[in-house]
UniProtKB/TrEMBL annotation:
It comes from Patulibacter medicamentivorans. This is Transcriptional regulator AraC family. The keyword Transcription regulation applies. Keywords: DNA-binding, Transcription, Transcription regulation. Residues 245-267 are annotated as: Disordered. Gene3D superfamilies: Homeodomain-like. InterPro entries: AraC_XylS_family_regulators, Homeodomain-like_sf, HTH_AraC, HTH_AraC-typ_CS. GO terms for molecular function: DNA-binding transcription factor activity; sequence-specific DNA binding. Residues 245-258 have a biased composition (Basic and acidic residues). Pfam families: HTH_18. Residues 146-243 form the HTH araC/xylS-type domain. It comes from the Bacteria.
């Protein structure tokens, strides 16, 4: 994998695009978006009547916007706004809407290629944005929550339910709900959704058709998968096919999976 090749890292409630920029159309998506250019080429952001030019900026959840940049070293961090970190970043971004983050993220460096480099970048970006404002969930799970997470992985593509996961964890559904989000960083239903998205993208990267990838991930059909992806990231899953996928199973390094089909960057 070349240092400037386009890649997409997928974790629990987080995604990181790393590669060249482009000229995006106006759109909105559910994820909070933080974009940084590392070659000095500015990013242009349009928000209604406001425009911002910077090398680091952010867009809160569900806000219509347009991004354009000729940067060849662009990193875009996507965070689920219902997750532990995403919720706090979304609040911060809304409070500083339309402001440059050049100073706040000035110590960030271009992420190294691979899943480990992506994880380090995500951690560094969150630290610079949030500082010491409360602990972030780690990868160490208690045995009951680990059992629930394992249940989700074993159940897909069938729909994992909170009740069944609670039985696997030997907890009541309410008790599992209380423990799951602080440890995993996402509510149970959002975690299941992200696992389905990761499963679908892994299938696409392995060469599956959109229909097959959708079915294997538990979506009703390819249109359901496409709608879900657009709501989350503002683009269809087919746009990811030109990128190298870096999955993050349990925080461990994974083999890169890729196919070479032209597609636009997710801006």
């Amino acid at each position: 994998m070349g240092d400037d090749d386009a890649s997409l890292f997928l974790g629990d409630g987080v995604a990181l695009y790393r590669g060249p920029g482009g000229d995006g159309s106006r759109h909105a998506h559910h994820a909070v978006q933080v974009a940084c250019a590392f070659d000095g080429v500015p990013i242009e952001l349009e928000l209604d009547e406001r425009r911002l030019t910077a090398t680091a900026l952010a867009v809160p959840s569900n806000l219509p916007h347009r991004l354009r940049t000729g940067s060849r070293r662009l990193a875009i961090l996507f965070l689920d706004p219902l997750g532990h970190d995403g919720r706090r970043v979304d609040a911060l971004v809304r409070a500083r809407l339309g402001e440059s983050l050049d100073a706040a993220l000035g110590q960030l460096r271009w992420p190294a290629a691979g899943a480990a480099g992506a994880r380090r970048f995500v951690s560094a970006a969150l630290t610079q944005l949030l500082g010491d404002d409360g602990p972030r969930p780690g990868r160490s799970l208690s045995p009951p929550v680990a059992a629930a997470v394992d249940h989700v992985a074993r159940t897909l593509p069938d729909p994992p339910t909170l009740a069944a996961a609670a039985r696997a964890a030997h907890l009541s559904p309410s008790r599992l709900t209380h423990r799951f989000s602080p440890e995993v960083g996402l509510p149970f239903k959002r975690y299941v959704l992200w696992m389905r998205l990761r499963h679908a993208v892994a299938g696409l990267a392995a060469g599956d058709s959109l229909t097959r990838a959708a079915a294997d991930a538990g979506f009703s059909d390819s249109a359901h998968l496409s709608r879900t992806f657009r709501r989350a990231f503002g683009l269809p899953p087919s746009a990811l096919l030109s990128m190298r996928l870096l999955d993050d199973p349990g925080g461990r390094d994974a083999d890169d999976r890729s196919v070479q089909v032209p597609g636009p960057p997710p801006i």
